[in-house]
Amino acid sequence: MPHLPRLSGRHWPESAYRRSELPERVLQFGTGMLLRAVCAAAVDAANAAGAFRGRIVVVQSTPHGQASTMNAQDGLFTLVERGLERGQPLERTRLIGSISRALLADAEWHAVRNVVARPELQVIVSNVTEGAFRLDAAFPPRLTDLLYTRFERLPDGPSLFVIPTELVDDNGPRLAAMVDRLAEGLARGPEFREWLARRVRFCSSLVDRITTGTPAADVHATLERRLGYADALLTVTEPHCFWAIEADPPALRAAFAIDALPGGVIFAPDISFYRKRKLRLLNGAHTAMAPLALLAGVRTVREATEHPRLGAFLRHILFEEIVPGIDLPADAAAAFARTVIDRFRNPWLEHEWRVIATNQTAKLRLRVVPAIVGFARKQGRAPQGLALGCAAYLRWVRSRLAHPAGEDVDLPLIERHWRAVDPDAAPGPVLATALERLAARALADAGLWGANLTELPGLLEATTRWLLALERDGVDAALEALHGMPDYAATGRT
Asked: Model's pTM, two decimal places?
């Protein structure tokens, strides 16, 4: 392959906006693909439309990040959107110019402080992973230090909006509480806390965009040949992009006008609708399917969606169980569910079930159990598909007991129920009486699920029946049995 020039400022087209003249108005914690595909892309589009005139300073707060590469490429990277839209293949390529530079938190903290003390800087965005989104991690103290710097150097400056994107419920108030707690120990703590209340707005936000990670070497090389330059930050993502930010829309728009274009970014006083829609329909479908797909030996989401039985199972739980059980307008929920199918079928995504099943127990509690409860209370009966998903989870957990590998921090909470009914956990069949006791014990654990699920009409019976069927006949036979049930066949969604 001929040598390709490295992407740099020379590749920025003259017809585009004058990026070098734009002030640095956003500070971003995180150099990863998700924020490149969401925040940087949204700011770039708003700049191109003339709605927002500003650039992003990126902070690398871990030893392994992309700061040096970003600087070597003058902040530029290529966004490749690949997927299905209304069932048809779609591919778009854009050069993104919204990042000005990247700074290392460990070595250049003085420069980061200088950025936050400028009046034009009005937005801080973060994506430091859920593991780092806690009081004893590095990010909250660093953010507190920056806010204290602004308090000391620019006390009468414009309001500052802090927008976390970590996948944590109410991430804005949670981050605000951590900063407030850390502020207590500072020299001018009471004054600082009063200033925080007046000058800083912590905004919950929800990001919904599947990024595929670094492309395989051959795919990367093919894309670079088409582009005509080498791009070490090539970012491949799906066409769907949604970022909901909870704030007073006019106030946030005055500082961060990136919601002018249709779709993509939404400012709203309450984003609970969007959070519930994504958590129940997209994340809930992922979580309910993961154990079944893994037991069936299916590797990726796309393969499962196109599988004759697993694909039918997905459509059934989405349209006939989750949508009817969710506390959202039926038309809106069904419309979003249809987009989920296209997203799961994306031929360019290699989304593996083993990754999705990380921390499966907590995900089941947060994403699937509310859908089961909602359906059972509204319909007066158990959702058979989701009950099968629960049974598959219990069956799959047994295979993890000998090799937990740290992939489910809540595994001990369900493991104790298996140990109580099957102390040896020896390979081979499990007695039907043990499985019946397991289902009764596990579903009754209100401390684990937030409710005693055996009190829901028919759920214990359904889960026990599917658990026995999985043990006796296997995944394919259980899915076939579900397919033949009257309430399943009546839907016509095969």
From this structure: 0.84
